[in-house]
Write a structure and sequence with these properties.
By secondary structure, this protein is mostly helical. It has 4 helices and no strands. The radius of gyration is 19 Å and the shape is elongated.
Length: about 80
């Protein structure tokens, strides 16, 4: 048996004021986060980047404790949203 989910009036009011685009974005984000069926395959790419830019990017990613390629992928995903 599924539990009953209760929503506050404030939450329902906020949801009722959402635009269709915001609703679609919410559903897409929810699908992407919660309903991943299997990991997507990755593809190896080659890209030319100026050496000083890459060196600075790697250094900043390292200071933040993030592998630089992971940061590049996160930037790509955020840009698409």
């Amino acid at each position: 048996m599924r539990p009953i989910q209760y929503f506050s009036k404030e939450y329902l009011d906020r949801c009722s004021s959402m635009t269709p685009e915001q609703i679609i974005q919410f559903l897409e984000d929810f699908r992407a986060i919660c309903l991943k069926e299997k990991p997507q395959r990755s593809r190896l790419i080659s890209i030319k980047v100026p050496e000083d830019l890459l060196r600075a990017f790697k250094a900043k990613a390292s200071l933040n404790g993030i592998p630089y390629q992971t940061k590049i992928k996160a930037l790509m995903e955020n840009w698409l949203k």
